[in-house]
Amino acid sequence: MTNLVTLKTYSNAFQANFDLSILQAHEIDCCLFDENTILLNPLYNITIGGIKLKVRAEDLEHALEILAAHHN
């Protein structure tokens, strides 16, 4: 995956994985960054800025629409 952009950040691994699975079900290539670090030590959450859900730059708008539809 190239040209990754951060779609959203999370302090909660459950919500991050939930949104990840929604996007994957819609065949959007995406991945989580820093999830394992925060799971090992939750105090790092503030330092590294949370769990990051990243998508390809060209999928950003479509991914935002999908998540908005699921959360409304």
Could you tell me the mean pLDDT?
94
Category by helix and strand content: alpha+beta
CATH topology heading: Alpha-Beta Plaits
Which blocks of ≥5 consecutive residues have pLDDT under 50? none
Number of domains: 1
* Major sheet size, sense and barrel closure: 3 strands, antiparallel
**What is the topology, as strand order, of the major beta sheet?**
1-3-2
Question: What is the rounded Rg?
Answer: 12 Å
CATH class, named Alpha Beta
Total DSSP E strands: 3
Q: Which range does the strand content fall in? A: 15-25%
Fraction of residues in helix: 40-55%
Shape: globular
Number of helical runs?
Answer: 4
State the order of secondary-structure elements, H for helix, E for strand.
Answer: EHEHHEH
End-to-end separation? 29 Å
- The CATH architecture name reads 2-Layer Sandwich
General description of the model:
This protein has 72 residues and is of the alpha+beta class. It has a single domain (4-71), classed as Alpha-Beta Plaits (2-Layer Sandwich). The protein is 50% helix and 24% strand. It has a 3-stranded antiparallel β-sheet with strand order 1-3-2. The longest helix has 13 residues, at 13-25. It starts with a strand and ends with a helix.
